[in-house]
Write a structure and sequence with these properties.
Length: 356
């Protein structure tokens, strides 16, 4: 069995659902259930004995010790994190607590458990740390995409905390021999994405008749990957990645934010047209830019393809169509995540009336 952390969040829940759809190996899912964790994401697993959910913190060493000793996983996949850049600008405390201190405590607990395993299990054990392309900083328009050798130049409190966690994972391998793997992935999108991030926020706001808040000139570039492709990459790295290595994961889909918002509006115009006949594009508003906003990310995922044969299955066109269709088909899920805490956040970030 494997231990997944953060498996009630966007990528973690997609990973757990896909993992159990692909095979029979059970999962223990440790998640603190912050505002971003949502048990509704895991509803299809209700009554499935292969999935054990535990509410708790990766920084709770005693709890993690108990879970490791009790379930004896052959691997840990660490998704748990504070993940939203804008929130890290408003306040970084939780990011340091979970992404840095939490990862440290998790590594220590796993090191203790791994050190006590019989030889064969020790050799087979893996700790896979899920990280981001944002640790590499921002690219000039014509610069080559990030390779795994790119220097770390994190620019936001979020990316700095993730870079710190990546360094800890690296050090626990080099110093203590812990068999780690790290993946650095570009922007994900797809089902179950919390509507504080660009793509789900734009879909949800468009359908609600609210403004579509584009930061600054909207010419920032991100490299988008459909979440199911990220999950397949993680499964592949866990199965066959070389211990101690990092693997970049990306979709070869560089797009400006404005192009993304236009695509979403055009799909909604086709699939759920406004009753007044106008395009959803008329709801686009340019708002104050994010402080320290990274201009461009792009991932060179050739190492993962060369060594492990992984390629994304979706193009951006197929993935974004599936995503918009999923949000249209799941208004109850959207309603469910729009809790009081979420509304407070939108009011703080965009002003009470502009996008809320
Ligand atoms: P998310 O914010 O949707 O989910 C994070 C999950 O972690 C939530 O379920 C939350 O409850 C849980 N969590 C937070 N603190 C915890 C703690 N202390 N202990 C246990 N659980 C805790 O994030 P996501 O978008 O699914 O991202 C998952 C991971 O992938 C993160 O490490 C993130 O840095 C990384 N990543 C995300 C993207 C992306 O585009 N979303 C891209 C690359 C990498
Ligand atoms: O690159 C990987 C990273 O992608 C992950 O590590 C992060 O966890 C994930 O949140 C994401 O970070 P971004 O900051 O790129 O994602 P976000 O969806 O917040 O923003 C995407 C782009 O859209 C970014 O340039 C900011 C812009 N944006 C975002 C929001 C929420 C807007 O223009 N308007 C908005 O309202």
């Amino acid at each position: 069995m494997i231990l997944v952390t953060g498996g009630a969040g966007f990528i973690g829940s997609n990973f757990v659902l896909d993992w159990l759809a692909e095979g029979a190996e059970p999962v223990v899912n440790l998640d603190k259930l912050t505002y971003a964790g949502n048990l509704a994401n895991l509803a299809p697993l209700k009554g499935d004995a292969r999935h054990v959910f535990v509410q708790g913190d990766i920084g709770d060493a005693a709890l993690v010790d108990r879970l490791l000793a009790g379930h004896r996983p052959r691997a840990v996949v660490n998704f748990a994190a504070e993940s939203h850049v804008d929130r890290s600008i408003h306040g970084a405390e939780d990011f340091i607590a979970t992404n840095v201190v939490g990862t440290f405590r998790l590594l220590e607990a796993v090191r203790g458990y791994w050190g006590g395993l019989p030889e064969a299990e020790r050799a087979a054990f893996r700790f896979l740390h899920v990280s981001t392309d944002e640790v590499y900083g921002s690219l000039a328009p014509d610069a080559p995409a990030f390779t795994e050798d790119h220097v770390f130049e994190p620019n936001s409190p979020y990316s700095a905390s993730k870079a710190a966690s990546d360094h800890l994972v690296r050090a626990w391998h080099h110093t203590h021999g812990l068999p780690v793997l790290t993946t650095n992935c570009s922007n994900n999108y797809g089902p179950l994405h919390f509507p504080e991030k660009l793509i789900p926020l734009m879909i949800v706001n468009a359908l609600a008749g609210k403004p579509l808040p584009v930061y600054g000139d909207g010419q920032q570039v991100r490299d988008w990957l459909y979440v199911k492709d990220h999950c397949s990459a993680i499964r592949r790295v866990l199965a066959a990645g070389r211990v101690g290595e990092t693997y970049n994961v990306g979709g070869w889909n560089e797009k400006t934010n404005l192009a993304i918002v236009h695509t979403i509006c055009d799909l909604l115009d086709e699939l759920s047209p406004r009753t007044d006949g106008q395009s959803y594009r008329s709801q686009i508003t340019h708002v104050t830019d994010r402080p320290g906003h990274d201009r461009r990310y792009a991932i060179d995922a050739r190492k993962l393809e060369r060594e492990l044969g992984w390629r994304p299955a979706e193009t951006f066109e197929t993935g974004i169509r599936k995503t918009v269709a999923w949000y249209l088909a799941n208004p109850d899920w959207v309603q469910g995540v729009q809790s009081g805490a979420y509304r407070d956040w939108v009011a703080a970030q965009y002003g009470a009336t502009s996008a809320a």
